[in-house]
Amino acid sequence: MAPASDPMSLAGSPGFLPALTQAVADGHEACITLLADLVRHPSLLGQEQSAQDLIAGVFTGLGLTVDRFSIDLDALRSMPGFSPAVTAPDGRDNVVGIYQPRVHSGRSLILNGHIDVVPTGPADLWSADPFDPVIRDGRMYGRGVGDMKAGIAAYIAAFSALRRMGYQPAAPVFFQSVVEEECTGNGALACLHRGYRADAAVIPEPFGQTLMTAQVGVMWLQIVVTGTPAHVLDTGAGRNAIESAYAIAGHLKPLEQAWNDRACPHRHAAFDGHNHPIHFNLGKIEGGEWASSVPTRCTLDMRIGFHPGQDPAAVRAAVEDTIAQALRTDPALNGVKAEVSYGGFQAEGFALPEDAEVLAELEASHHAVTGGIPRRVAMTCTTDARFFALYGDTPATCYGPHASRIHGIDESVDLASVQEVTAVLALFIARWCGLEPIVEQ
């Protein structure tokens, strides 16, 4: 295909899309192989380094400049968007592949993905080893295969497909593989601290080829409940900390319901299509000392959602006021104490303008490849997109493959959707960044 004089128009030239689709198809097996290799590295929290070694090697092989750096909590602590760490960051790195064009004539881009994965849960409930990926009926199974190693493999495959065609972006592109997305987001925040900015950011999260237009805020908190111990021969002499903990969690439910009420002043218009966008989740409980003793202490770990525009400090105050009122007014909690602390996500929500160019260009690329129009969705979770949109002057969204049972048993990704997402991302890069021909040195 002859080079076009205008790097921004090449993607619309005759024959470009069929050639791109073929280049993506030619690289699909390599993409699947890379995805399987990534899944075989069990990059749980604190164990991401071997997977990052693999990513760094892939970036080097693509001719990218590799920037590998650790998370400096002291440097991040004063930045907006910081979340208290849940584990020591020692020896854990982000990896960024930096591409620079010969001539910067297009719009710059960040392609971001997180390498960390959540725990597997009971391995015996999986149909196969969660870190030994298998393919059945067009799907690959394994922990992290959808959330979100398939997205990382897809953005690498998209760049590779353009190179096979003899082209490269006409603007800087930063390929980010970050840690700690699943608990704080401090990996992406560290990229901002390092100076990474662009005209847009796309994160290929496994949201079924939809375009993310908004996301809720998310906060992690821990409630330590202290009761009064007693022998079970007279349970009335004590206050059961475990039962009291459940009671306190129950008292938070009306707050959840209030924030979901359509008359709530905090409710964001982006979530008009959701009946229940705000979720309070009791995710972990530990308590008790002895089967024949009334338990003294119980610890609850909760995840609560809140609307874009709600100040995290105000959210914390509302939670603490609700608990304090419960302790004052509920006779079942007489004599019970509760202490609230915060670790992990303290993540604000955000919404993109409906006319954001990154949404329009992704929508056009999706339509060109698939013939359909992607749904625009306000997500009831958080992603690292918030850092770019809120603090980095970089409009950000998510567009990625179809996955099922993420964070669950037998997580899987549809491989045909990975190939389609690869083609959409490659076309988006061509449309957003423009292209220049590769000149052999």
TrEMBL record:
The keyword Zinc applies. One of its GO terms (molecular function) is metal ion binding. Residues 214-328 form the Peptidase M20 dimerisation domain. Its cofactor is Zn(2+); Co(2+). It comes from the Bacteria. Its EC number is 3.5.1.16. Keywords: Cobalt, Hydrolase, Metal-binding, Zinc. Belongs to the peptidase M20A family. This is Acetylornithine deacetylase.
